[in-house]
Amino acid sequence: MPATIIDGNAVAAALRDEVAAQVASLDRPPGLATLLVGDDPASQIYVRNKRRRCVEAGIADLHRHLPADVTQAQVAATISELNDDPAVTGILLQLPLPAHLRAHDLLALIDPDKDVDGLTEASAGRLALGTPGLRPCTPAGVIRLLDHAGVELAGRHAVVVGRSNLVGKPMARLLLERDATVTVCHRHTADLAAITRTADVVVAAAGVPRLLGRDAVGPGAAVIDVGIHRTPHGLCGDVDTAAVAEVAGFVTPVPGGVGPMTIAMLLWNTLVAARVTSVRAQTGTTH
Ligand code: NAD
Fold first, then answer.
1. CA of 178 to the centre of ligand 1 (A)
2. Mean pLDDT for each consecutive 10-residue tract of the chain (287 residues)?
3. Distance from residue 24's CA to the centre of ligand 1 (Å)
4. How far apart are CA 73 and CA 66, in angstroms?
5. Which protein residue's CA is at the shortest distance from atom 39 of ligand 1?
């Protein structure tokens, strides 16, 4: 029987509606500061989409744009200003930055309670230790999709293909947090397909077009495709979706799978961060 296609557009739309409803019930709206440095065309599109979705959800758009030749100190000062601004409840530093800037050092300056991308060392540490914190949007969105599809995670074998700080590593930790037995594969893994074939859940985040074919998936597995590639024939992911759908239980399409969840989770994180900073303001706690 062909796999069930998990509709990421629908799950993301429902999550955005939920965020909008909860934002409407707050005394003051959350505020997201997207910080864009320079004029990278792809980054401009990503940031524009994030800002549009924020406004639709009732989140204040507190965007900042700095010129490409800005200094490290100037970006650092802007982040510090945003950290101190009570109207700003979430900060997102859009990557990549111009080559002369040290992204790692700048990310480290973001107040962890405002780190809506969940990518700072502090957020990664919280995730690694299993303490409350803001989780990276893409892997958190994958968990939402699996939950929506009713895929059991506890005690199941989950294989994550990719070990980046952005997707693979936090994905593995989130699956561990949900009591899955997790295997992480990467570019040095020998016989990838032999490993992914044994999985109940496969998350493909290798950045290689159609890396996983029919032979790489076991019967009934849930296959989540994080990859996104522009080809002359349109967009595709890390999974050969049509072939894999013949054996898998669930697959996500590209486009319309994980992609829309990433922005929806950003809105969710902005809502969560606003709640945390509001409690902090009431109790006078600081970081
Ligand atoms: P990355 O290049 O930083 O990491 C890729 C990882 O895959 C590495 O750990 C590498 O070891 C592993 N890998 C590469 N080739 C492999 C192979 N042949 N076999 C096994 N492992 C292999 O990429 P990333 O930032 O983690 O992104 C991965 C993919 O997900 C990209 O296509 C990216 O565009 C996409 N992405 C999508 C979203 C979204 O919202 N849909 C968000 C982030 C990333």
1. 22
2. 95 98 96 97 96 98 98 98 97 97 97 97 97 97 98 98 98 98 98 98 98 98 98 96 98 98 98 90 72
3. 36
4. 12
5. 259
Number of Cβ within 10 Å of residue 41's Cβ equals 7
Which residue in 198, 279, 287, 271 sits closest to 21, CA to CA?
271
**Beta strand 90-93 pairing with 60-61:** unpaired
239 ligand 1 Cβ < 6 A: no
CB 183 near ligand 1, within 6 Å = no
Q: Which of 11, 20, 10, 95 is nearest to 55 (CA)?
A: 20
Please report, as a single letter, which amino acid is at residue 65.
Answer: H
- The whole-angstrom separation of Cα 160 and Cα 167 is 9
pTM given for the model: 0.96
- Give CA angle at 161 (2, 228), nearest 5°: 70
Cβ atoms 228, 259 nearer than 8 A = yes
Active site residues: 50, 94, 117
Q: How far apart (Å, rounded) are the C-alpha atoms in residues 4 and 248?
A: 8
The amino acid present at 203, given as its one-letter code, is: V
- The answer, yes or no, to whether the previous bond of 41 is cis (omega within 30 of 0) is no
The per-residue pLDDT for 284 is 74
Residue among 136, 140, 165, 149 nearest 223 (CA): 149
Asked whether 265 and 15 are in contact (CB, 8 A), the reply is yes
User: Per DSSP, what are the bridge partners of residue 159?
Assistant: 183, 202
By DSSP bridging, strand 64-66 and strand 31-37 are parallel
Question: What is the number of helices (H) and of strands (E) in the chain?
Answer: 10, 12
